[in-house]
Amino acid sequence: xxxxxxxxxxxxxxxxxxxxxxxxxxxxxxxxxxxxxTNYTDKGKETGKIVYELVSKAVSGNEITFTIKTQTFDKxxxxxxxxxxxxxxxxxxxxxxxxxxxxGSMLQAYQEMDIDVDASEFEIPSMDAAIGTKLxxxxxxxxxxxxxxxxMTVLITDRKIEDKKSVTTPAGTFKCIGMSQNIxxxxxxxxxxxxxxxxxxxxxxxxxxxxxxSGKLMGYSExxxxxxx
Length: 229
Prior knowledge:
Layout: H1 2-22, E1 34-41, E2 46-60, E3 63-74, E4 79-90, E5 93-97, H2 104-107, E6 114-119, E7 121-124, E8 134-135, E9 138-145, E10 150-169, E11 172-186, E12 190-200, E13 204-211, E14 217-227
Antiparallel strand pairs: 1-2, 1-14, 2-3, 3-4, 4-5, 5-7, 6-9, 8-10, 9-10, 10-11, 11-12, 12-13, 13-14
């Protein structure tokens, strides 16, 4: 019986290690690594940037949790918002906490208030996934209470794998998986638009483009710096 239990334990450990190995996260995996996403208008004028840092990485069974710090800066380079969110490898699948979709520029005025966040997961499939594959929707709800009460919602729907290609930015050239999606946001006013995003394994988002209802480019973001540890 003892030998049988030891065998089961061994198989369980092997299974957990295999799940961790299969998961290829779409973020840098070395603690202390920083990277920068810069936002631009459709004409290429900088509107601000977000600096990310992998603060910690924790392994528990078949789950790996990455904690990431973000700092949002305006176009003058002044810090206007800070936040943290998690990304996970679970059973070989990689997913972000939808908190990473929070717009720091919109929440700047509410930093000192009570903010309650309800965020779903945002799955990024492996590079082996087929083009056309449909992906789960994502949602983010933010309730702000204090002197001023405010609610914000972000709904991401109709997600699917669009393409796979190399994308070049000031930070380098990366082999990416591209996804398209529809986005609905509501805070003071409601906005509906679509976007395309490209992600590289071990890096994260490399480029994103936003389009209005007519299909016209409204702005884009791209990876402008990656300082790996």
